[in-house]
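TOKENISED FOLD:
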Amino acid sequence: MNLSIVIPLLNEQESLPELHNWIVKVMTSHNFSYEILFIDDGSTDASWSTIEQLSEQNPNVKGIRFLKNYGKSQALHAGFAKAQGDVIITMDADLQDSPDEIPELYHLISKEGFDLISGWKKKRYDSVLFKNIPSKLFNWAARKTSGVKLNDFNCGLKAYKNEVIKNIEVSGEMHRYIPVLAKNAGYSKIGEKVVIHQARKYGSSKFGMSRFINGFLDLITIWFLSKFGKRPMHLFGALGVVMFFIGFLAAGSIGVLKLWKLYHHEPTILVTNNPWFYIALTTMIIGTQLFLAGFLGEIILRTKNNEERYKISKIIA
């Protein structure tokens, strides 16, 4: 199979028939063998009924329905697990991503050997204040932190080799950072393509300030995981040892100074009346806690089990 089109969605009933027909038109005109995977992330409208109707019309349409809203990352995870195509395309269901981009994305992966191609919505039709400016700030921070030189991490239109999506773990809200996850997994040929961004035709945007804030928190998380995810002791253990050593030296110096003054019959105060003693003691305690955090992190990594992250109520295969 040439292509798997993975489309996570939430309450996009109105746009689904038009999106389906547009994708089918592109697939037919280029003689692609394909499947369309709709992942209904707990929609409260008639999105699932629409998917069932499309599946009856077109056997290439498949669907997964979550019991409730688990988030885009979980929807992509479920879609990636089912995808069978040589090239996997992800896109949003709101018609802001153009299926006409698919053939060139497929060519870049299948013919030019890219592992991943990320779309870049260079010209956007979103709110400048509430989406464009925050997005630019977020993308700048992501580039600086991750080292992946992309202009638009948030673009839902991306293309992947099959082996890439089978070898990365998309969890939490990490869908924005799939290129970073791919790079950390060893896939270095990551490219970018300017794509058409269309104004929203139906419904309303799901973007809010909470997603913007969560994006930055996830950026910190993925930076940490990429650096120390496999060896938490390298960070917490090292910091703990340094802080304990500093605290120990400070406490020792206070004790030595006290003995020196007693030996020379100079006036002195009780060690417990010296505020620097408590600072040194606190530093040693924090150092011990950091070391234990690293140690516990190592134990958790070696004993953790994969947990079920979402529940599926229905599948159209």
